[in-house]
Hints:
This protein has one helix spanning 2-18; strands spanning 25-27, 36-41, 47-51, 56-59, 65-69, 76-82, 88-93, 105-110, 118-120, 130-135, 141-145, 150-153, 160-162, 171-176, 182-186, 191-194, 202-203, 205-207, 214-219, 225-229, 234-237, 243-247, 255-260, 266-270, 275-278, 286-287, 296-302, 305-310, 314-318, 330-336. The chain is mainly β. Strands 2-3-4-5-30 form a five-stranded mixed sheet, with no helix packed on it. It starts with a helix and ends with a strand.
Amino acid sequence: MRFFLRHTIILLIVFGAFQVTNAGWRRLNTNTLAWLKTIHFSDAENGWIGGTHGTLLKTADGGRTWRQRARFTEDTIRQVHFFSKSTGWLLCERNVYTLGSKSPSYLLKTTDGGENWTQIDFENKQRQRITNIFFANSGFGLAVGETGALFGLEDDNYSWKKLLAPSRYLILGGSFSDNLRGTIVGGGGTIFFTEDAGASWNPAYVSGKTRSKLNSVYFADAKHGWAVGSKGKIYQTVNGGRFWRAQRSNISENLNDVFFSNTANGWAIGDNGVILKTTSGGNVWKPVRFNSRHKLEKIVFNGKKGWIVGFGGTIAYYEPENMSSAIRPKFNTRYKK
């Protein structure tokens, strides 16, 4: 009897670790098949979504209504970041088959809420693809990409200067934990950290390290961060990026992005519609039911409401069950000038 009871308890614990939760993510009908790459909110009301063929959506009411902006480029918008309602950046990528002598990547900047955009090239532009731009709260920014490409935003808040790269691997993700300390991740399990805003970099120590590609990194505060990558890899740091330890995701799909609202509650998303949730700082990750098999690219939370974008025009939103009313987003596919 004791033997049976003991093994029953063990099975229940194992089952609990693998059970699928239903965490309230709803896929929206967006009437677009664009591959959506990025989403960002500058405040509680204003947000942007970017994707292939110059697709750019904007909300001014916290996501209740999204309007497609007039198309001003056919290039892919890989990333959007706004510091305020008026000032923002787009990281754009040209079609590799029509490049000619042009650089694959360039930036667009606006100071009037997206009504007008100014093109900005990286210093000593080469044929290196830039994959990510990220910013500290101070406004300082870094851009990373192929063969360890690294650029820093100058004091004029306009020019991007080439910096000494710490790695020759493809760099895919980056995040600041404060105004000086930051981490970049990429191919070959690369993790480097800086404590002087990118002037110098040191390799992090990674327990259980593999050569798997890391796609994204996110810090919940100055000390606690998570990195995710191929084959379900998840790593955590509790000392600002110097040391990382592996966490168990119990999946084999590639993970593309991660977000934590605090040091306990977080989400990771990836290929084949994978969504994982943790309420224990990543000690236990549970898969979440989601009605899509598309690749999921980016996840953000704006207050208590969450947003995911991905392949095939995928947009999903999350609202806690105890919130008083659903946002019921609407999409206007007409171009707005």
